[in-house]
Amino acid sequence: MVGSVIASFMAVNRDFLVASVEGLVTFEIAAEKAERKSSGPATLKLHLIDELYNMKPEDYGMARVELKV
């Protein structure tokens, strides 16, 4: 699943290193938000998909990485 997210970022950003980091950060933020809502593996996946779909720019404030290129 994370590979699909990274590939989506690579489709719009030809700097593959930056696109990979962006995709991983997006996935991690969505996973953290989904984990808070889920009660087991099935609901985690369900909430993860919803969180990826509903990502907003302000969600990136949760990021604990900074990419300097």
What does this structure look like?
The protein is mainly alpha-helical. The chain has one domain. Helices cover 67% and strands 0% of the residues. α1 packs across α2 and α2 crosses α3. The termini are far apart.
Q: Which band does the percent of strand residues land in? A: under 5%
**Structural classification:** mainly alpha
Poorly predicted residue ranges: none
Please outline the major beta sheet. Answer: none
What integer value in Å does the Rg equal?
Answer: 12 Å
Instruction: Give the total of domains.
Output: 1
Q: Number of helical segments?
A: 3
Per DSSP E runs of 2 or more residues, the count of β-strands stands at 0
